[in-house]
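Hi W.,

Here's what went into the run:
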Amino acid sequence: YDGDQVLHIVPETFQQVQHLQHLCSTLMLDLWKPQLLEDIRAGEDLHIRVPAPLVQEVKDSLDQHMISYKVLINDVQELVDESTLKERSQRQ
Amino acid sequence: VPEGYNYTKYHPMEEIYEWMTQIEKNSELVTQHHLGDTVENRTIYYLQISQPSNKPKKIIWMDCGIHAREWIAPAFCQWFVKEILQNYESDATIRRFLQNLDLYVLPVINIDGYIYSWEAERLWRKNRAPYMNGTCYGTDLNRNFNSSWGSIGVSFNCTSEVFCGSGPESEPETRAVAQLIEQKKSDILCYLTVHSYGQYILTPYGSTTTPPSNNEELMQVAQKAAAALMGKYGTSYKVGSTSSILYNNSGSSRDWAHMIGIPFSYTFELRDKGTYGFVLPPDQIQPTCEETMLAVTTIIDYVDQK
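Here's what came out:
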C-alpha cells in the first residue's frame, strides 16, 4: 500500500456520479464507502482507495471533470505500519 | 481478567486464541465453547459470560470481526469482555443485567480472513473460500446469511468485495453462527454485530425499506444509546435502518437475526468517520472502545429492564 491514497469525494451531479462509477470500475479502485458502484450518489460521501501508480491519473481525471476531492489518507502504508510494525517490535 | 494482556493494541489471531483460553481459566463467569470451523479448518470459539444462577436467563449475542480488515471490531469484543469481568461486582448496571442475562461473545467470526489480513493483505475483507477452481477467493460473510440472500447490494462475481457466495449459508462460518442462533433463538433477545467505521447504529432492514413491526422500539432504543454517546463523549452517531441511511444490502446477519424472530438486532459502525477508515491506529482503540461500551451497555440495560 506504499503511496496508496484514500480520497473523499462528494459528487454533486448525476454526470459526476456517472464519471466516478466509470473511473472506479475501469481502474478497479477499492471502494471503502459505499461498497458498490451503484450506491455512489450525488450529495453523498465516497471514500476510495487509489493505488499509488494511479493516484495522479485519478486526480487529473477528477480535475478535468471539475470534481473536487480531499485526501483523507495520504499514504495507506504509513498507517498500516503504525499498527503492525509496533506490534511486531513489541512482541519481539 | 488475566494480567499482561494489552487491550490498546491489535492482536494477531494466535494471541486472541490464547487470550480466550486464559480468560476462561481465570474467571468463574466465562466458558469457552466450540462454535464451528472455518473454510481453512480453524476452530471458531465463542465466550459465554454467565453468572451462576438457578433461574432461567435470556441471551445477548455479540459478534465481531465478520470483515477481516475491520480490526477495531475484535479489539472491541475483547475490551467488552474485560470490562464486564472487571466491573461486574462494582458496576450496578452490569451486576443487574448479569442476573437476568447471559452474554455470548464471538470475538472473531472470520478467522481465516483476519489471519490473512495480518499475514498477507491488511485490507482483506472476506473469508478465504476458494472459488472458480481457486482463481478467486472469498465470500463476504455479511452478504451470505439467509435473509433475502442475493437480492440487492451484493455481487455474484467472486472477485467482488461483496460477493455473496454460491448460496445462502454457503460458508461454514455463516452456518456455524446460524446453527447456534437458530438453536437458541427463543432465548436470544438481542443480536449485536460490530463493524468498523461511520458512526452508525443500524437497524433492520438492509434489503427492504419496509420497516420491521417493532421499528419504533428498535429506533427508540438505538436513539437512547446514541444520546448516551453524545451526552458523555460528544460523539454523534446516526441511527436508522441500513437501507434508509446507508445503502441496501441483503444477506446480512443483522437482517437475518431479526427475520428469525430476535427482537433487537443492530449493527454498530464504530467511531471513525473516514479519517483512518479501516486502518484505525492503535491509539484510537481505547477511546473507541470506551464510547462503544457505553452504547452497548445502554442497549443491554434497556433489554434487561424490559
